[in-house]
Amino acid sequence: MDSTRKSPGGSGALRPPGPLEAPTLAFDLKTEIERLRGENAWQSGRNSKALVKQADFRIVLTVLQPQARIHEHKASGRISVQTVAGYLRMHAGGKIFDLPTGHLLALDRALPHDVEAVEDSAFLLTICWPEESDKN
Q: DSSP E strands: which ranges in the chain?
């Protein structure tokens, strides 16, 4: 069995495996952000990594270059977006939310939203689903 994973973006670079599901998981976000920015996928303006991946719960770390956008989409579960570096702007529910470092926004299920990096940014996306839901 292969013990490495390809990094996103099709760069062919290999990312060392890490546990995604365990009774306890701890992360140094500064180091994780530096790794994401060091991968070839970062050249496209964005890179991300699932830190936690369970049936009903996910945490994804994403880095965005200035003016990079994640176009409107929606999640089947409730989400939170927490800016850990930089400055994000999100549109959701007909409102604009400015999210500088240290700010958090929580959204209900299936609420369309987009994300824009006002400056070089990193954020944690947390997604929670009811255990019986089908996430696709």
A: 5-6, 14-15, 46-54, 57-64, 69-73, 78-85, 87-92, 95-100, 104-107, 113-117, 121-128
| Residues 2-56: tens digit of each pLDDT | 333 444 444 444 566 578 888 999 999 999 999 999 999 999 999 999 999 999 9
CATH of the domain at 49: 2.60.120.10
* Residue 9 located in a structural domain: no
- 84-122: string of b/e by CB count within 10 Å (b at 16+)? bbbbbbbebeeeebebeeeeebebeeeeebebbbeeebb
On whether residue 27 sits in a domain, the answer given is no
Can you read off the two tokens belonging to residue 38? 């060091």
The amino acid that residue 63 corresponds to is V
